[in-house]
Every structure is written in C-alpha cells, then in structure tokens.
C-alpha cells in the first residue's frame, strides 16, 4: 500500500512484480526502514521525473509520521497549520540527519511570521530563548518547532485566525513560491470587458482565478525573459492601469490604487529580471546565502579552535622543555655539591686544581642562569601571545555581536528606504502624469496654431492673387476707358459732321433722312458711362478670372 501510494503521488508507474521479487525471500517478519530503503531508491525514487505535486507528496509524508510524532498537548494552531509548519521546517532545516532547524533559521521563520501577523518583532525575547536553546542543543526538530509555534510564545495577543493566516502567507511564499497575490481587474481579449480576478504571481507564471479560494482557474500568463511590464495612462473610466507584454499577446490590468499598481509592476519586473539572469526566487537565494554564511562562520570558528589547540600544544611543549631544563639544573646542582664535597676532602692537596674547578663551575652556572633567563623570557612572550589571542577571541565575539546588530539596523533602514522609494515612485508617477497632460495640451495648441497659420497663409495668397487680378482689371478698365474716350471723340466729331451735313441736306432738299448704323447688341452701362465691351466679352473675362482664382487656391 505504501509503495502504491508513493508511485501514485510521484507519478511513477507501479510494478507489483518487482515488489514481489524484491521481498520474495524475506520471511523474517516486518520490513525495517533499512530493509525498505534499497527498494525505495531503486524502483521508485530513481524513476521520479519531477512532474508531481509536491504539496500532495508532503501531505502523504505528513500522514505517515504525524500521528506518531505530533504532540497530543493542546496547540493553538490547527492540524492544517501544523502541516504547513512541518513543510516549512523541511525547507529551512539543515541538509543532514537527523533533521534540525538552527536558531538562525528559527529567527528568520519567526520574523516572517510576526511580519505577516502585523506585530512587532521581540528581539530581546528571542535572544533569551536562543541562549536557553544553545545551552542544551544545536536546534529544534520538526515537532519541537510545531510545539513552539502552537504554544503561542511568540504570538501572544493574536487570535487563532490571525496566526493561521500568517502561517498560510509564509507557506505560500516559501513553499508554493507565491511572490505576490491579490484582486485586480483584467480586460478581456474578445469581449473587451473588465472582470475582477484573483491574481497569483509565481517565479515563471501569473495565474488568475475567480476568487482567492483558487478553485476556478481562468487562465495563465507565462513569463520569460522577453516579457515586460509598463504603466498605462487612465482610460475608459479605469485607473491605475498597467500592461504585461508577452510574445504571443498582451494583458491590460487595473489595480485598486496607485500603491498596488506600483507594487505589482515592481514585483513582475523583478520576476522577469530573475528569469533573464537565471536566478532562483528571492527566498531561496536568501536561504542559500544564510547557509553559506553559517558555513563560513563555522569554518572560521573551527580554524580558531585549531589555532587554539596548536597554541595549547606548543605551550605543553614549552612546559616540557622547561621541566627538562629544571632537571638539568638540579642534576648540575647535585654534581656541583659532589664536586664541592670532593674539593673539601682534597682542599689541601688540590688547592690550585680547586681554584680552576671553581672558576669552571661558576662559568657553567652563569651559562645555565642565562639559559634559564632566556627560557623564562620566551615563556613570558608565549604567555603574552596567549593573552593576545584570548583578547582577539573576545574582540571577534564582540565583532560578531556588532555584525548581528548592524544587520538588524540594516534591515530597518532597508524597510525605511523601501517605503521612501514607494512614496517617491508614487509622486514621480503623478508628476509624470501631469507632465504628460501638459505636453498633450501644448501639442494640441501648437497643432491648432499651425492650422490657423496655414489658413492665414492660404487666404493671404488668395488675397494677393485677387489683388493682382484686380489691378489687371483696373489696367484693362483704364485702357478700355481711354479707347472709349477716343471712340467717343470720334463719334462726336462724326455726329457734328453728320448733323451739319443733315442740316444742309434738310435745308436744301427737306425730304431726305439719313439712317445711322447702330449696334447689333444692347449697350452695357458702367459707372463711368457706356462700356467698351459687350456682355459676352464680360462673361468671358469673369470665367478667366474665376479660373485664375481656383488655380491660386
């Protein structure tokens, strides 16, 4: 049953024949963990492709071990929350068995949990807990961590629902890789209507659902290094718009306010940048950095301990050398006493020889004293070196404490800078919006001004053409007027001649009447008298003038 369930959860085909063959000769009773592990590694784990639901796999493992290990005491969290804490423990624990979570990772988890609950972090309280923990062991097991969270020691004043929501938020971020989630409006691609959806941002995809229970999934937005996100101006009655551009299509999104809009744009852009660089999610990268830092500090501490052992060994060697010198001095003193005794016995006979021996012994004693003084000086230097190393060790401990405090201060300053950057981004977006509106207004004004200038130039050109035509007509009118005056003078002269001639004829003959020739067409009258041209000529001139005017326009 266990093997079949593992194969189902891990999407591996189950082979009952292989199971029977593997355990065919085992008639010694129940299978132990050590006896089952070879079958698990060979027939199940080696066939895993990675395309399985990790949450369901964790839930199955939880089912196998929770009943036996979960504390029966009253916990302030539900079984589901205890399961999520257990999964988070597996993510943050060290890569060695038995699995434990070190104090640094416990502090990271509790800080995340406190931040999600909206409470303040109690560093002093955790320091007391950390001191008590370090005196007894290196870290906590999964079940001890569940007891710690369920006891409410670091969530006093918070109700169960708040703690549960905080655990779920940390679980979504660390285990499900949820970088951001929330309600926003999405514009449809076919009907172009706006619908509220629950969006979930992960390292390479944005999924959107009908509601936050994640039951009815409506679609995905696949992210890669070619995607980009940009802010849009307000339109169609929608505000706080931004656009997600992908290779195949684009998505218009409307956030609830400017802060949410900026947060989503920044989160999506950060995700795209991580995809371009091939980097892991931020929480996984931070976990790896914390692990490397712990390994570095552990290596430095081991190196320091090694140096202390070397100094201790060197100190023991020096002590042995000093003991050897002391024994040599004692032996020399014994030999000197023996020689003194012999000298006293042979004082009379060997007076001269005694003087020489005495001088020799004095020289030997002086050399031995010089050696002792030299060894004593070396011992003092060695002890001074030991004291300096001890002082250096204390300074190193103080530096580590200062570094921890500096990290806490840096975290505080970083949060303040992040808040200031958000405010600055909001103000900058507002200023850019005003600047864009002003530029649009200026462009519209310039366009209208240019159009009016073009119309004025066209009218001026038409006016100039009309003035030229008017001047031409004036010249033609003057020429026609001059021709008319000449014709009029000729007519007057002819009329006078005719009148005198008619009078003469009338007087002489009385019956003769001359018929004068007249115009076939009716005469045109102008302001200056009879016109010098006919109505047909006037119509032809008007057509010519209208044609010139149309050409100039």
TrEMBL record:
One Pfam family in the UniProt entry: PH
Domain PH: 177-273
GO terms of molecular function: DNA binding
UniProt entry keywords in alphabetical sequence: Cell membrane, Cell projection, Coiled coil, Cytoplasm, DNA-binding, Membrane, Nucleus, Phosphoprotein
One GO CC term, this protein: plasma membrane
Entry-linked PROSITE patterns: PH_DOMAIN (PS50003)
Entries under CDD domains matching the protein: PH_SWAP-70
InterPro entries: EF-hand_SWAP70_N, PH-like_dom_sf, PH_domain, PH_SWAP70
Highest taxon of source: Eukaryota
Main location: membrane
Cellular compartments annotated: Cell membrane; Cell projection, Lamellipodium; Cytoplasm; Nucleus
Residue ranges the record marks as coiled coil: 283-504
Record note on quaternary structure: The SWAP complex consists of NPM1, NCL, PARP1 and SWAP70.
Record function comment: Phosphatidylinositol 3,4,5-trisphosphate-dependent guanine nucleotide exchange factor (GEF) which, independently of RAS, transduces signals from tyrosine kinase receptors to RAC. It also mediates signaling of membrane ruffling. Regulates the actin cytoskeleton as an effector or adapter protein in response to agonist stimulated phosphatidylinositol (3,4)-bisphosphate production and cell protrusion.
Protein name: Switch-associated protein 70
Record lineage: Eukaryota, Metazoa, Chordata, Craniata, Vertebrata
């Amino acid at each position: 049953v266990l093997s079949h369930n593992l194969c189902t959860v891990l999407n591996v085909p189950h082979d009952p024949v292989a199971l029977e063959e593997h355990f065919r000769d085992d008639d010694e009773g129940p299978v132990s963990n050590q006896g089952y592990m070879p079958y698990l590694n060979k027939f199940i784990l080696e066939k895993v492709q990675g395309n399985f639901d990790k949450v369901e796999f964790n839930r199955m493992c939880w089912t196998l071990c929770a009943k036996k290990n979960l504390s029966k005491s009253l916990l302030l969290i539900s079984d589901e929350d205890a399961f999520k804490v257990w999964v988070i423990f597996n993510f943050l624990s060290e890569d060695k068995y038995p699995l434990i979570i070190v104090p640094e990772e416990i502090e990271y988890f509790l800080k995340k949990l406190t931040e999600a609950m909206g409470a303040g972090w109690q560093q002093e309280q955790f320091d007391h807990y950390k001191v008590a923990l370090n005196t007894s062991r290196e870290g906590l097991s999964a079940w001890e961590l569940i007891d710690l969270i369920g006891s409410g020691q670091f969530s006093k004043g918070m109700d169960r629902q708040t703690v549960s929501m905080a655990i779920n938020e940390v679980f979504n971020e660390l285990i499900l890789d949820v970088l951001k989630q929330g309600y926003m409006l999405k514009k449809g691609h076919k009907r172009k209507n706006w619908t509220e959806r629950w969006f979930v941002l992960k390292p390479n995809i944005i999924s959107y659902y009908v509601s936050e229970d994640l039951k009815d999934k409506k679609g995905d937005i696949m992210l890669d290094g070619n995607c980009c996100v940009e802010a849009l101006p307000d339109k169609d009655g929608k505000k706080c718009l931004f656009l997600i551009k992908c290779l195949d299509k684009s998505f218009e999104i409307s956030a609830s306010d400017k802060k949410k809009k900026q947060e989503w744009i920044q989160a999506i852009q950060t995700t795209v940048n991580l995809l371009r660089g091939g980097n892991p999610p931020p929480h996984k990268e931070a976990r790896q950095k914390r692990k490397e830092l712990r390994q570095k500090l552990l290596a430095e501490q081991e190196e320091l301990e090694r140096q202390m052992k070397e100094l201790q060994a060197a100190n023991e060697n020096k002590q042995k050398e000093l003991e050897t010198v002391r024994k040599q001095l004692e032996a020399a003193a014994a030999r000197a006493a023996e020689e003194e005794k012999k000298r006293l016995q042979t004082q009379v006979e060997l007076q001269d020889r005694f003087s020489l021996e005495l001088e020799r012994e004095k020289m030997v004693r002086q050399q031995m004293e010089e050696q002792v003084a030299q060894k004593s000086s070396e011992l003092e230097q060695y002890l001074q070196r030991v004291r300096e190393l001890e002082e250096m060790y204390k300074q190193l401990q103080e530096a580590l404490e200062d570094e921890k405090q500096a990290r806490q201060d840096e975290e505080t300053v970083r949060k303040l800078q992040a808040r200031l950057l958000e405010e600055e981004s909001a103000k900058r977006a507002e200023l850019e919006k005003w600047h864009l509106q002003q530029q649009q207004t200026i462009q519209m004004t310039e366009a209208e001004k240019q159009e009016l200038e073009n119309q004025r130039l066209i009218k001026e050109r038409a006016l100039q053409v009309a003035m030229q035509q008017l001047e031409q007509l004036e010249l033609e009118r003057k020429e026609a007027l001059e021709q008319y005056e000449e014709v009029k003078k000729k007519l007057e002269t002819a009329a006078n001649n005719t009148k005198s001639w008619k009078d003469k004829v009338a007087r002489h003959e009385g019956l003769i009447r001359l018929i004068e020739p007249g115009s076939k067409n009716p005469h045109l009258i102008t302001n200056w008298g009879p016109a010098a041209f006919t109505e047909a000529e006037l119509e032809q001139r008007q057509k010519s003038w209208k044609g010139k005017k149309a050409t100039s326009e």
